[in-house]
Specification:
GTP-binding protein of the rab/ypt family, nucleotide-binding, globular, single chain, six-stranded mixed sheet, GTPase activity, GTP binding, Small_GTP-bd
């Protein structure tokens, strides 16, 4: 029989994807969730919701991601705060062949720092690594940007991937999983469960004894 220490623990986190239209946010999610890629995927309208789990063997923890894939079109930008407001993690995605998409990703990071929950895990993600010969966003420029952010006591991760080939996609979510406050969430859930279990069922007779009684009619 397995001991209690061998039991896999469970934690659930909300994750949101942000970035300009056509950078491949939906493709990254579908590669991660379904291990599929579609060259002709239509743009997301509003937001799409998917879930997927990963297991971190070193901490014997299964993490369930509740993933909100937001639309990149400018007309949907006002909806984004609705999705990242209570998020534990955010992927800010850019296209390594499109410098303006990197600028847009930086704008999203600024917005998250101002409005998102304190402690949110942010991962800057360069997609379309399969088009590295057409790269227009320099890796050193991105690395310097991330280092400057982290020198200001931020905690921003950085990774590159190819949703098309699948290269690096799972690594991104594993990296985020290791940066999330797993212990805090699990311990908080255990504490709440103990509090609920410690409540005594039944009627509080002492409280009822002091409650006013209805007076009769004269």
């Amino acid at each position: 029989m397995a001991s209690s220490t061998d039991t896999t623990r469970f934690a659930q986190f909300k994750l949101v994807l942000l970035g300009e239209s056509a950078v491949g946010k939906s493709s990254i999610v579908h590669r991660f969730v379904k291990n599929t890629f579609d060259n002709f995927r239509e743009s997301t309208i509003g937001a799409a919701f998917l879930t997927q789990t990963i297991t971190l063997p070193e901490s014997k923890t299964t993490i369930k991601f509740e993933i909100w894939d937001t639309a990149g079109q400018e007309r949907y930008k006002s909806l984004a705060p609705m999705y990242y407001r209570n998020a534990h993690a955010a992927l800010c995605v850019y296209d390594i062949t499109n410098p303006s998409s990197f600028t847009k990703a930086q704008d999203w990071i600024k917005e998250l720092k101002k409005q998102a929950p304190e402690g949110i895990v942010i991962c800057l993600v360069g997609n379309k690594l399969d088009l590295s010969e057409e790269r227009q966003v320099d890796e050193q420029e991105v690395l310097q940007y991330v280092q400057e952010l982290n020198h200001q006591e931020n905690n921003v991760l950085w990774a590159e991937c190819s949703a098309k080939s699948g290269e690096g996609v799972l690594d991104i979510f594993n990296k985020i999983g290791r940066a999330l406050p797993v212990e805090e969430v699990i311990n908080g859930a255990s504490s709440r469960a103990r509090q609920v279990g410690s409540r005594k069922p039944g009627v509080d007779l002492a409280r009822q004894a002091h409650s006013p009684q209805n007076s009769g009619c004269c």
